[in-house]
Amino acid sequence: MASHDVVELILKDHRTMEDLFHRMRRTDADRSGALREFACLLIAHGEAEEAEVYPALKRYKDIDSNEVEHGAEEHTEGNKALLGLLEVDEVGGEEWDEKLEKLVEAVTHHLDEEERTLLNDARENVASERRAELGRAFERERADQLAADCGNIENVRRIAQR
What we know:
The chain is mainly α. The protein is built from six helices and no strands.
């Protein structure tokens, strides 16, 4: 049976993002396809975290609300870096590689920090039943975002500018 634990769901998305980074770096891969898939995942994941997970985690006294706020700030940085890459015309050119590395740097920093702080704190301080409830809410919001083609450049631009 698939886990609905929000921590496990978030970690699964993180590993998928890392796999997509590898595909975007490979010259023999469908790099633009990997970018489209990544854009949808990054936006859906971040929007679902901010709508369903972060507000709930702020209510726990043993979870640092500053870390929650910092996570949202890092989403903005990642979204801006994503927009920069989506705006590059030539996939695989020098500008593409530069923008890709900025995106990789911004997102991997966030993944690492979130896993070491918020997710560990959630594992330790949030009951498994509540993590499952949060996981189901996260999955619903994430699915709604994906169904709305959340990774299209116009939507990414709108989100990155707020």
